[in-house]
Input
Amino acid sequence: MRVERLELRVMIDFTEEQIQRYSRHILLQDVGVEGQEKIMNARVLVVGAGGLGAPVSLYLAAAGIGRIGIVDADVVDLSNLQRQVIHFTKDVGVSKVKSAEEKIKAINPDVQVDTYYEFLDSSNALDIIKEYDFVVDGTDNFPVKFLINDACVMAGKPYSHGGILRFNGQTFTHLPGTACYRCMFKEPPPVGAVPTCSQAGVLGAIAGMLGTIQAAETLKYFTGVGELLTNRLLTFDAKTMQFRTIPVKHRDSCAICGSNPTIDHLIDYEQAACDLKRN
Amino acid sequence: MAKIYVNGDVQEVSLPLNVSELIQQNNVQQPEMVSVQVNEEFAEREDWEQILLKEGDKVDFLYFMGGGSI
Output
């Protein structure tokens, strides 16, 4: 019966081209037609169309995510091209969201792309996030990382955190009720204390390593396959290629997701001066 | 001497040793940038000097990592 039903659904929901396009997903026992359909009905917000957002968007587009929103207020700079593989040399000077939209559409015309050519801040975060089922943090600075965390916790949205620096990366996945960024790091570091990639540098391929983990987590979330990186912080050092998952617990005293949260509104933390040049 | 595990690797340390001292011994450049777990429980920064480590403890340093977009 199950097989018949699946075949019927294939005939109804999928075109021949889609069956062919997504055949390697459909072949996976854990994904199949049903999983692919979930992917195609999914709405994902990618914040930052840079080092992490590039691989995330490319893989999610290729996978057939139905709707991808991209938030970024930047234009493509020549120094981005060493790692932000969704942007090409011809795109220098073009807004990152437009450049990313063009590549996503080229990979997979079925994907609906929403572009937000603006910074995510306390005034727009909840409005933008509410349109999506899952959020991917591909941002480069702590104020926005905390903003995404707080907004997702408040809105009850799952999200993938990602950070890279030099030869290192870290990521975890948050679902409502599991450890959040503030459980691990209470508040942003003092302005200028932690270098961003623009100050410290990053090996380009590191962005791909971490971004593809985030994309995989996103697809796992929608298909229900396996175990997400919840209550675990995955870190790696590409110099040694050592990967570690550190168990982390939801903190009951967490200011945003604890039992007595003290944060009841979104906060725009001050950014390091070097990050303000983007304006 | 006692064995403790720092970021998954075993270290031989002399007791008594508190979390602040362990951070110094590990040459953590910017302690203010590190979040610390002892035996999978977060240790509040203000408690670091009071938390005495013992044989077999597992300590994790979690570092802020920012980059991604620029």
